[in-house]
Design brief:
By secondary structure, this protein is α+β, with helices and mostly antiparallel strands. The chain contains 13 helices and five strands. α6 runs antiparallel to α8.
Length: 256
């Protein structure tokens, strides 16, 4: 801690599992250093892994109001243990986190959700295209993207705070229900073999249905393109057809 103070940290707080009293022998030690520093770094000190994040006071205040970050930042500050705070900056940030209410950023959240869901249209279309050409690697990448990135969006939609990403998946599943839970597990590869791609598309469909009222006309038009593509099942014979056409092309080339 003395080293961080010497480097210009105005405040230092302990966060994460160690602050909550839930750490295991494999948990890193999360420290927030408030000030201008090198950003993020992992360091090994006395045989323990330290995760050190430098953030300015302004950056933290912005994070406490940004839809993409409040889910973890707010509970992180609420549960943080202040280790050094000469000017009271950390105490003020913690008080702001404890006073946080979703209603103060409702409009920003809804706009962010709509933008994110519209943006993931690209992943849906790539997944559908990969299924049609039997590109298993690309399909796996795209379905994993949807399975990992849609839950944080739905957490904002349902105004969920989670002090650890480890809790996020179960919290979202419990909030939305059995249909989401089954699709998410399958998309992650925990369900029926071969069903993961379709499950990821189901996740997107569920999300689109829930947030439809937040979309602008232009956004809704884009999302519907993805939904229509997701409803079109892949042709199981597509790879063989592609191979056959290539064989024909080779024969034609030899005859010319």
């Amino acid at each position: 801690m003395r080293e961080l103070i010497a480097d210009g940290a105005e405040a230092i707080v302990l966060a994460g599992s160690h602050a909550r009293g839930e750490a295991t022998d494999l948990s890193d030690i999360d420290l927030y250093a408030i000030g201008t520093g090198p950003g993020y770094a992992l360091r090994l000190l006395d045989g323990r892994v330290f995760s050190i994040s430098w953030r300015t006071e302004a950056e933290e205040r912005e994070a406490l109001r940004h839809p993409a970050r409040v889910g973890t930042v707010v509970p992180g500050w609420r549960n943080a243990r202040i280790l050094h705070d000469a000017a009271g900056i950390a105490a003020a940030l913690q008080a702001e986190a404890r006073a946080f209410d979703w209603s103060t950023i409702a409009a920003e959240c809804d706009a962010w959700i709509a933008s994110e869901v519209t943006g993931y249209t690209e992943e849906v279309l790539k997944l559908v295209a990969a299924r049609r050409t039997d590109d298993r690697q690309l399909a796996a990448v795209q379905r994993s993207t949807l399975a990992l990135r849609l839950p944080p969006v739905m957490a904002v939609h349902h105004r969920l705070l989670y002090d650890s990403e480890n809790r996020l998946w179960a919290m979202v599943a419990e909030t939305i229900g059995a249909g989401w839970s089954a699709a998410h597990r399958t998309a992650l590869g925990l369900g029926e073999p071969g069903a993961a791609d379709a499950a990821a598309l189901t996740l997107y469909t569920l999300v689109a249905e829930e947030v439809d009222q937040l979309l602008s006309a232009d956004q809704r038009a884009v999302v519907r393109v993805a939904l229509r593509a997701a409803e079109d099942p892949p042709d199981p014979y597509a790879p063989m057809k592609d191979l056959a056409w290539r064989d024909v092309a080779e024969i034609d080339a030899r005859l010319e």
